[in-house]
Amino acid sequence: MIRLNSEDLDIMKIGIFDSGIGGLSVLHQAMITLPEADYIFYADVDNVPYGEKTRDEVRGLVDHAVGFLVEKGCQAIVLACNTATSAAISYLRDKYQLTIIGIEPAVKPAVEHTHNCGKRVMVVSTPVTAKGEKLKNLIEKYDVNHVVDVVALPKLVRYAQNDDFDSQDVLDYLKHEFRSYNLNEYSALVLGCTHFNYFKDSFAKLFPDDIEMVDGNTGVSNNLKNTVVKKGIFTEADNGKRGTVEYYYSDRKMESAAEMEHIRKLHERLERMRQI
């Protein structure tokens, strides 16, 4: 068991990890729900996408990133990546003596949304998440009426990493992947990858106007806040504080004006997508 360094334990410091920029959507919501925290955001852009790797490869990469965040003094870490959560969270919780919070596709609220309406639920995710036991178990637990379909969208992460969110290429790709489905049959769309939050406007062009897009960001952020309060990481001294954020891309700190401007624009898009 690896123990947390004693450095900076008087500061509420939260690590948020993802394979790429998708995790910014979790950070964005966490900063709204828990603005008092100091955050370290780590995106493993050198190795994205994780959804096309083996589970062992993913576990090794996530282990490195979590070790990095532990060295930076993080008292809790959020795996803002469905693929990483599915492949590595049990291993990480055994190895590191600190709070590690995962994310999972929001199947339960999506199924509840369709209750009695006679429509279906679509879960879109990476291939690793789509094939994983975690998603399978979620669907078996909550999909008693067998209304859930799962569609893997492997290329969408690459589009996100290239800042290509609403082009015709993206729309054509989605149309091709959904070609076997009657999208009018769906009342809920579960975004089972944090990268997919950038594409809500593109999804909205294809699904019915009343489609409910569901992600796990609010649930994870609320869980994070409740956990840090319960475990005493959040203290009275944090009340009213405005936290800071440091951004790392595969161990490299983002500090230049160009890098920070790019991150600012990503947050702006995420805020617009949050309103959809």
How would you characterize the overall build of this protein?
With 276 residues, the chain is of the alpha/beta class. It folds into two domains: 2-103 and 217-274, 3-Layer(aba) Sandwich (Rossmann fold), CATH 3.40.50; 107-214, Rossmann fold (3-Layer(aba) Sandwich). The chain is built from eleven helices and twelve strands. The protein has a six-stranded mixed beta sheet, with helices on both faces. Strands 8-7-9-10 form a four-stranded parallel beta sheet.
Question: What's this model, at a glance?
Answer:
It is built from 11 helices and 12 strands. It has 276 residues and is of the alpha/beta class.
Give the tags.
single chain, 276 residues, alpha/beta, Rossmann fold, 2 domains, 6-stranded mixed β-sheet, 4-stranded parallel β-sheet, 12 strands, globular
Write the topology of this structure:
Layout (H helix, E strand, L loop, with lengths): L1 E2 L9 E6 L5 H10 L4 E6 L11 H17 L4 E4 L2 H14 E2 L1 E3 L5 H7 L6 E6 L1 H5 L1 H10 L5 E5 L1 H8 L6 H10 L8 E6 L8 H7 L5 E3 L2 H14 L14 E5 L2 E2 L3 H18 L2
Parallel strand pairs: 1-5, 2-3, 2-4, 3-11, 4-6, 7-8, 7-9, 9-10
Antiparallel strand pairs: 11-12
Helix pairs in contact: 1-10, 2-3, 8-9
